[in-house]
Amino acid sequence: MKPFMDKDFLLSTDTAKELYHDFAAKVPILDYHCHISPQEIAEDRKFENITQVWLGGDHYKWRQMRSNGIDEYYITGDAPDREKFQKWAETLEKAIGNPLFHWSHLELQRFFGYTGVLNSETAEEVWNLCNAKLQEDSMSARNLIKQSNVTLLCTTDDPIDDLKWHKVIREDETFDVQVLPAWRPDKAMNLEKPGYQEYIQKLAEVSDTQIRTFADLKEAMKKRMEFFHSMGCLVSDHGLDYVMYAPASEKEVEKIFQGALAGEPVFKEDAAKFKTAFMLFIAPEYARKGWVMQLHYGCKRDNNKAMYAKLGPDTGFDCISNYTPADQLADFLNAVNDTDKLPKTIIYSLNPADDEVIGTIIGCFQNSDAVGKIQQGSAWWFNDNKTGMMKQMTSLANLGLLGNFIGMLTDSRSFLSYPRHEYFRRIMCELIGGWVENGEYPKDMKNLEKIVKGISYNNAVRYFGFDLETTI
Hints:
By secondary structure, the chain is of the alpha/beta class. The protein has 20 helices and nine strands. It has helices at residues 14-22, 38-42, 50-55, 59-67, 81-92, 99-112, 123-134, 141-147, 164-171, 186-189, 196-207, 214-230, 250-261, 268-289, 305-311, 326-337, 355-362, 386-399, 419-437, 445-464, and strands at residues 29-31, 150-154, 178-180, 235-239, 292-297, 299-300, 319-320, 345-349, 374-376. Strands 4-5-8-9 form a four-stranded parallel beta sheet, with helices on one face. A three-stranded parallel beta sheet has the order 1-2-3. A two-stranded antiparallel sheet has the order 6-7. The longest helix has 22 residues, at 268-289.
């Protein structure tokens, strides 16, 4: 029997161990998509206790605590932090087979030096150990990033953001990790949602543009993109229900936009037409600037309306959607491609059944503009577990070129999430090592080193065009 989460955790063959320890473990982390607060980086936040840094905004953990019958008082309520931590420890001991069990213990090992097991009986010991460690300067927000060997990270930022904290970080010569904004224009596109008129007014103010027409909106977006570009932005991101393609005339799109500005209800079909027009406008703009376009879709959000009314979005009440039409995704990419302005694009679906769909669609739009120009994103959200990662990478290998894959991202709000990259790399080395051991790929260590380091780090550096060393 193997020891619990030792140095060869998730590695079952000699080749997998060699690939991980000699190659994957030694390269840095490039976190090209996360939700970390730039303000907390700029201010170098220190956390008072493990509950603050671990449970403060982690809806992954909140879902499991609810599944364990824990009262909301101990999850998002006003219970003391020590009691919240105890309830999480009681939940974790039941999470056999869940990635949170592995992530939590990797974080305890890497950041706190704790090699035991967190459960209801050890909670007091772990609480005291972690809280004492958190008082050290090495556990501030910036130092957590640095000790994780992160070279660059991209936050997630709205077009109306003044990027104040990015400026502070950029001008601080004492912090050498690049922190770049990433453009997330969902609120400008989601005209069917409450508060759209107020948002457009704010956008008008920050862009110094009167937004009375769709053309005005496009002009405002271009101005904000120029500002983001000046701040080093090279990445966009869209959170979509699905990638829609419902083309409409300019007149029809304008009528829909005017109705939204007037506060009229927006029907689902009209929203799809407007969003299609918005995406057909903005995707070529990304290409002109050399930005990468990320498309996240396949999520049905805020399903528990009572809890949404109480807690708001992103609190653990989302699920996988099975309405992810392949024809519309393909038709959208084709429409942009017809303009010769299809940007480098990463496609993520929350529905794992879409792996093969995405794998075949991306093959239709690859060309010599870039190596692996159209990417399937790493297994996302409910799929970033051992099963989901191996399935996604196996599908990509079957249908495309795994060697060009740009690898893992945290997609997290926590400064302790970087061991997820280790988790991913171990699983990736186990998968590749298994193929080698089974005689399905030669044990050419020179080429395997290139593949493993590429997926772990180098491919992403090259793909995004970041100013980083590319031959690690």
